[in-house]
Design brief:
The chain is α+β, with helices and mostly antiparallel strands and 536 residues long. The chain is built from 19 helices and 21 strands. A seven-stranded antiparallel sheet has the order 1-20-19-15-14-9-8. The protein has a seven-stranded antiparallel sheet with strand order 7-4-3-11-10-2-21. A three-stranded mixed sheet has the order 16-17-18, covered by helices on one side. The longest helix has 21 residues. It is globular and about 60 Å long. The two termini are 23 Å apart.
Length: 536
């Protein structure tokens, strides 16, 4: 199993790994983590706690997720890993021609057009139905209490709330956006850090979802409210789109990385990108912390992996290649041979034929959950359904309007999805859940966390604290200020277009829980957010 020095952390945050025996919840907001712990102490299992934490995050961190978003999960239970895809398709009334007729040459970022069927409430119901030990009414109670009675806004959430308000105020001008400002800036401004914010409509929606096991959202009063507001303000989503949606249990995919199995969900998620990069990096036996060649190889591997991901990831019914071919040893060797001493312009290969929240939960019964949900780009589309607190996502923004593109927009199609939970096992036994949220940073964060853990043997907290880089496009790479200057300069000499980031918010926000051989839980939480670990 994992070997690491529990005290060694050479990075600036100097946080320590948290250890516990009975249960642990790691996420980006303290109140949400405590909500999950509360459920564990009431006799709920890790799945109940994950749902409680996720629901609470829609209230206490609305800058990153909401009831109207999508969700994915990896669940270890009874000796097996299960995958859940709760991402919804495009409305049946949408088409490329309709988007073009409204004057857009690419899928817009805001408004009704990028809104796809939300999967979050269905994810909660599916998890509780299959694995939970408490009713959904119990799991959602902490979230309902915070929405109804209010809570003080945490620092990082407050920062992103203010930033989102400024962006939305400058860009959201139509009547369809008025409800966003009524809900999230009720005094004509966003709530400040430490200021109490409440959302009675959000509480009412959560209560209806809890009482009906999410049916109210897909075929009841909430579905009717969504359809009614869409009809009034130019949306294409209907009650039939909502009623037809069902989350899907899927088989996770994995690669073996130096004796550990790294698990992700299959497309339409971009977890495939992380696995492709790790397959390439597995060809090297000399990765070392702080080493120039290690940085260079990781960057080049992720560039090649993203090139393939952008070329092939879409609705699983329309992927033009076999996933097992992309993840084959032969293809990994072929791609690794493209990496030289200088930065390359990435291009997809031909394989052989043949704004997001993350949480990790573990209990003392052996259950572990890796869970992620998001509205995308912060608050999402800017569409909020009146009197419900439901902020709708904008996942359809990733669709292409080129009918020849693999991820082109079609009615009822699932788009390329950025949010991905991760899980680590060894010899068929669980090591634990991990994840790094943040758009296209996510697979890059997964790769860096796994290399930090497996190759460098860093403890969970040090693996998250380590300086990060992010490939943007072409040869452009952003690096955190904590990456040594001599490394940044040397990468530039290899042809990378290196830019130092002014803030660390774009480098992802992650959580880790590892189960040690004796059953003790070891957790790390992200220093780049309001992250916390609640444990007992």
């Amino acid at each position: 199993m994992l070997k690491f020095d529990p005290l060694y952390n050479p990075y600036p945050s100097q946080r320590m790994t948290v250890y516990a025996k009975n249960g642990m919840v790691a996420t980006s907001q303290p109140l949400a983590a405590q909500a999950g712990l509360e459920i564990l102490k009431q006799g709920g299992n890790a799945i109940d706690a994950a749902v409680a934490t996720a629901a609470c995050l829609t209230v206490v961190e609305p800058t990153s997720n909401g009831i109207g978003g999508d969700a994915f999960a990896l669940v270890w239970s009874n000796g097996k890993l299960y995958g859940l895809n709760a991402s919804g398709p495009a409305p049946r009334r949408i088409s490329i021609s309709k988007v073009l007729q409204r004057g857009y040459q690419a899928m817009p970022r805001y408004g009704w057009l990028p809104v796809t069927v939300p999967g979050v409430p269905a994810a909660w119901a599916a998890l509780v139905d299959r694995f939970g030990s408490l009713p959904m009414t119990a799991a959602l109670k902490p979230a309902i209490d915070y929405a109804e009675n209010g809570y003080p806004v945490s620092p990082v959430t407050g920062y992103y709330w203010q930033r989102a308000y400024e962006i939305y105020k400058a860009n959201l001008k139509g009547d369809e956006f008025a409800q966003w400002f009524i809900t999230f800036a009720p005094q004509g401004r966003p709530p400040g850090i430490g200021e109490i914010w409440r959302s009675p409509g959000h509480a009412a929606s959560l209560r209806a979802i809890a009482k009906t096991n999410a049916r109210a959202f897909y075929s009841g009063d909430l579905a009717e409210a969504i359809e009614r507001f869409a009809c009034q303000t130019g949306g294409l989503i209907t009650k039939d789109d909502l009623a037809d949606f069902q989350p899907e249990w899927v088989e996770p995919i994995h690669v073996n990385y130096r004796g550990y199995d790294v698990w992700e969900l299959p497309p339409n998620r971009q977890g495939l990108v992380a696995l492709l990069a790790l397959k390439i990096l597995a060809q090297y036996q000399d990765l070392a912390p702080g080493d120039l060649e290690t940085y260079h190889r990781q960057i080049e591997a992720i560039k090649l992996a993203f090139a393939d991901g952008k070329a092939y990831i879409t609705d699983p019914r329309e992927i033009p290649v076999a996933i097992e071919d992309l993840l084959s040893d032969a293809y990994a060797i072929k791609r690794q041979h493209l990496i030289s001493d200088t930065a390359l312009e990435p291009a997809p290969g031909t394989p052989p034929q043949g704004g997001t929240v993350y949480l990790a939960v573990a209990d003392n019964q052996g259950n572990m959950v890796s869970y992620i949900q998001s509205n995308y780009m912060g608050f999402g589309s800017g569409i909020v359904v009146p009197d419900t607190g439901i902020s709708l996502q904008n996942r359809g923004h990733t669709f292409s309007l080129d009918p020849k593109h693999v991820n082109c927009l079609k009615p009822g199609k699932h788009t390329y999805h950025t949010i991905i939970p991760g899980f680590l096992t060894k010899d068929g036994q669980p090591v634990g859940p991990f994840g790094v949220m943040g758009g296209f940073m996510q697979p890059q964060g997964h790769v860096q966390v796994i290399v930090n853990t497996v190759d460098f043997k860093l403890n969970p907290q040090a693996a998250l604290d380590a300086p990060r880089w992010q490939w943007i496009e072409g040869k452009k790479v952003e690096v955190e200020s904590t990456i040594p200057n001599h490394i940044a300069r040397a990468l530039a000499q290899k042809g990378h277009q290196v830019q130092a980031a002014l803030a660390s918010g774009g480098f992802g926000r992650g959580q880790i829980i590892w189960r040690m051989p004796d059953g003790i839980l070891a957790g790390g939480t992200e220093p780049r957010t309001d992250g916390t670990i609640a444990a007992w």
